[in-house]
Each structure stands twice: as structure tokens, then as C-alpha cells.
Amino acid sequence: MSELRKIPNVGKTTEKDLITMGYTTIESLKGKTAEQLYEEECALRGEPIDRCQLYLYRAVEYFVNSENPDLSKCPWWLWKDEFAEPSPCGAVCAECGLFPKTCEGCRKIKGKVYWLQNTRAGMFAKFTIAVSIKRGRQIAENVIVYLANDLPKILRFLMNRIMQI
């Protein structure tokens, strides 16, 4: 068993594949992207492999490239597309300091952004935004934001939340 098995989600099969691809240490994986590892494994096998392996490699990328990785963010299923791409609140859940402990992700909570509960009712009549170009495809969700009452208070609240991340 190599040190690669110290990486969350890396079992015997993934360890063997990583070694075959030339990655024998955690250090050798630093700087590699999940997409690169996934493409290398597809090439190794000679065919496209299950997309779940990409999600696993996203978790591996996070773990090996983070100075102090948060182990609660390491399960591979937290790196599925729905968490690795912009969500309705505009954040990328996998990169957000509040995910998954404080916020389970906008899609899980059906677009009701967790911090909305801390604002006065009626501040937002309708919202959802996320426009991004990622891996060559555009993700767009239309947005209309209606601000009511005092904007400075809302901005102070949001700035305090950002400072916690």
C-alpha cells in the first residue's frame, strides 16, 4: 500500500491506476487537475470511463492541492457537477467555505439560499443567478433581483458572510 491511499477516496483500484499513470506519491499529484487525471485514465483504459471517477479526481485535486484540506469536503459525491459549477446563489459550492457544513448547496435546498432566512421577509421577491462558461459550455440561469427596504443593511450582512469564508 502506497502513500496514495492516505488520500480520501483512493482505494486499491484508483491507487493502481494512479501508479500506472506515473503518480507514485501525493507530491507527484500536486498541480494536476481532475480533468487531466480523468483524461489520462480514459487514455490508459482506451475508452471513456464512468464520470464518477472525474468527481473522485476533483476531490483528490482538492485534497492534494490544499494546505489544510477540510475533510468534510472530501467525499467524492460533493464534487459532482452540481457542486463544482456555479449554483443559483452564484457560488461554486465545492469552493465555498460554508459548504457542506453550514449550507448543503442551493440545489439541495431548492434554491432557497440558506442566508435568506437571516434577512427580513420580502427583501428578495425573486432571485437566481449563475452565468459561467466552464469547460466550453455555458451555464445560464436568468435572474431578477428585487431589493426592498434598506440596501446598506443587506450589503453589510453579505460582507460579513463573505469575510467568514
Average pLDDT: 76
The structural class is: mainly alpha
Helix content: 25-40%
Give the class-level CATH name of the largest domain. Answer: Mainly Alpha
Order of helices and strands: HHHHHEEH
Q: What is the number of helices?
A: 6
Strand order of the largest sheet: 1-2
Give the topology, please.
Blueprint: H1 12-20, H2 26-29, H3 34-45, H4 52-65, H5 81-84, E1 130-134, E2 137-141, H6 151-164
Antiparallel strand pairs: 1-2
Helix pairs in contact: 3-4
Output the keywords.
elongated, 2 domains, 165 residues, mainly alpha, DNA polymerase, domain 1, 6% strand
Question: Overview of this structure, please?
Answer:
It is a single chain. By secondary structure, this protein is mainly alpha-helical. It has two domains: about 1-80, 5' to 3' exonuclease, C-terminal subdomain (DNA polymerase, domain 1, Orthogonal Bundle); about 85-165, no CATH class. It has six helices and two strands. The chain has helices at about 10-20, 25-30, 35-45, 50-65, 80-85, 150-165; strands at about 130-135, 135-140. A two-stranded antiparallel sheet has the order 1-2. A hairpin with a 2-residue loop joins strand 1 and strand 2 (about 135-140).
Short structural summary:
The chain has 165 residues and is mainly α. It has helices spanning 12-20, 26-29, 34-45, 52-65, 81-84, 151-164, and strands at residues 130-134, 137-141. The chain folds into 2 domains: 1-79, 5' to 3' exonuclease, C-terminal subdomain (DNA polymerase, domain 1); 87-165, no CATH class.
